[in-house]
Sequence to fold (623 residues):
Amino acid sequence: MSTSAGDALVGLTAVQMAEAMAAGEITSVELTRAHLDRIAAVDGGRDADGVATGPGVHAFLHVRAEEALVDAAAVDAARAAGESLHPLAGVPIAVKDVMTTRGVTTTCGSRILRGWVPPYDATVVRNIKAARMVVLGKTNMDEFAMGSSTEHSAYGPTGNPWDLDRIPGGSGGGSSAALAAFQTPLATGTDTGGSIRQPAAVTGTVGVKPTYGAVSRYGIVAMASSLDQAGPCARTVLDTAMLHAVMATHDPMDSTSLPGPRPDVVAAARAGDVSGMRIGVVRELHGTGESGSGYQTGVLQRFDEAVEVLVDAGAKVVEVSCPSFTAALAAYYLIMPSEVSSNLARFDAMRYGLRVYPAGIDDPTTEQVMAATRAVGFGDEAKRRIILGAYALSSGYYDAYYGSAQKVRTLIQRDFAAAFEEADVLISPTSPTTAFRLGEKLDDPLSMYLQDVATIPANLAGIPGMSVPAGLADEDALPVGLQILAPANADDRLYRVGAVVEAALQRRWGGPLLDRIPALVEVNR
Amino acid sequence: MSAISREEVAHLASLARIDLSAVELDRLAGQLDVILGAVATVREVAGDDVPATSHPMPLTNVARPDEPRPGLAPAEALAAAPEAQEQRFRVPRILEED
Fold:
């Protein structure tokens, strides 16, 4: 049996859900149950080890069905008692499994953390709970957020709801697939090189990487600390803004948390005005520059359409050049693994997580146990990056590799600074291609890394970026994303532009892009 | 000439405390060689006059007030330990045999 989600409760936006609850038309329990039913219908099964089995989206690693209904009932009771509630209170949300959740398993998609139950909540999760949103469960991801396809999850890949044989993007493919499959209206993500924006692009959803330091990293398992940034994922620009506002708060528990107020992203999403705005098309990220050879035709066509839409809405479009972006990928794949090799050293089999004793050794040493545990606990991509990072940081190579990459990082920041003299925001395709087939790039890490070519400059510079749906590519009828980039602490500009693009394109299409997603076949869990 | 040898990969893996099988070593060495070949271009981009950037935001020496706060109870801290004994993490032996 096939299911159309569009006319059911799960087809509403988060804002519509919130309004319906405030008006007394629906309860959080009804809403939560509708989403749990949808998850049960389309997500598919997992075996005793948590590995995906049979058909299905496989977006969730863990569903907290009973607990979510208890939380929802408590919100309904509070509302009935006349308590003052956050606008998103009672709205369901899915949490990427890289964020610690007190009492709820957190695996980061890794075997080394199988079954780990953290004793504390990440600050992002605390914020979500303070707003009394209902956490449905934890979403699948590439191991420790390392990948562009979710295929590096130790618990099996997630399917793209547009075509289950294709990747949902990564690392946050579980969150984006759950949104596109109408299993949740909101989800969290983390973005080190594009892990929020690229999954949003290939699933026809919205995702934002905020300014570095806008959202606390406390309780988010670190991949590359100078690049990692958590952010919101949703199906509409306004829903994304609502969640952004919940997530982005100063946190004394994170020494890199930015002080001071955050821009009003919700007001910007509601305003949605670009008249007089200068919008820069980045030459090097648009198929005409040296790095552009890999851009798919349909991606560039949808991008050019989005540019037209912005011109029609009164924006002034200029071309800007950021020459050092051609070296961004190389710099990123030295800086990031270097930080990975350091951060993943904490998985030492001593205080939490997996412990494996090496076979054939009586009374092994701690170091032998560590090596045996990490051999079994880490997947291929984690091992590749740890060793690559160890190489880049080793004496004799440090200056040539890590040192040079840090200098490129300076050049990229300078390029952005110059570009933002000429333009208020920058735009490009989010990803050079639409969703590729599962398995297609698994044995060719470098071609997988090229997926990030347009998204990583923002991480290296710490600036905010959004991916918003730009339509379907003609050649494969799969979603294309438009990337919008703004200066640090000007996250509101992303929403101002994103809302205009969303509204204008939906007028052209006659409705949201996700109205055109093929119906998912129901599977029994 | 390859950027990284199989022996170097084996050495780095031992420093990173990861046991690699011979099959894994073969595969990883080939893949890392390709990746390193691609990223080696960073060496030719920036001149000596360009300073290094290690972090996107200019924050330094951020500290909270040094005040006692509640922490995890021993049972909570030890709950996920592979092995625990007498309110401590129990670990394999640390010293090599003589």
